[in-house]
Amino acid sequence: xxxxxxxxxxxxxxxxxxxxxxxxxxxxxxxxxxxxxxxxxxxxxxxxxxxxxxxxxxxxxxxxxxxxxxxxxxxxxxxxxxxxxxxxxxxxxxxxxxxxxxxxxxxxxxxxxxxxxxxxxxxxxxxxxxxxxxxxxxxxxxxxxxxxxxxxxxxxxxxxxxxxxxxxxxxxxxxxxxxxxxxxxxxxxxxxxxxxxxxxxxxxxxxxxxxxxxxxxxxxxxxx
Length: 224
Description:
alpha/beta, elongated
């Protein structure tokens, strides 16, 4: 799961990032509103933590713009403003939750878990397509005939493909979703992990495959 932190106080952003990474989340950071909006509009995130007082574009205007463009992920506002009117404005703008600084990190983690649960499938432990199942708790690819453990990047790639079956996902989008914007991974790294996944799909006797659309991307399709 990938989380975006938009916070201009670098010390706070770095601290939050360290906590979230320790909890197993993938994290990207933006230190001003313009950069934060660009990141949100990429639509690769599962949740955003958004400061209100930001340079270039404040958090409220950033959120308005993102919602107007169809970005529907959960957003938790983090702000020093504690007046009821400020909370109402944030929530009416499209925020899903609101925390006043300073806040307890354990409470923030609980709210992140709650908000991401709300957006999940009722059968959140397992994604499926064709005869394959992705056991999210055990990080395994399964069919009725066999199962295999997935490495972290393999798991993230297959999870994203399963959330978007029969759709061609551009290479840039897959790299951003799995490796992040700050990573210098090249396209051949993506191709290597796609190759690993294809072998594991064959191993479990899957009736689906990862198809390549030349110069565009990959899609998870049923085998005819």
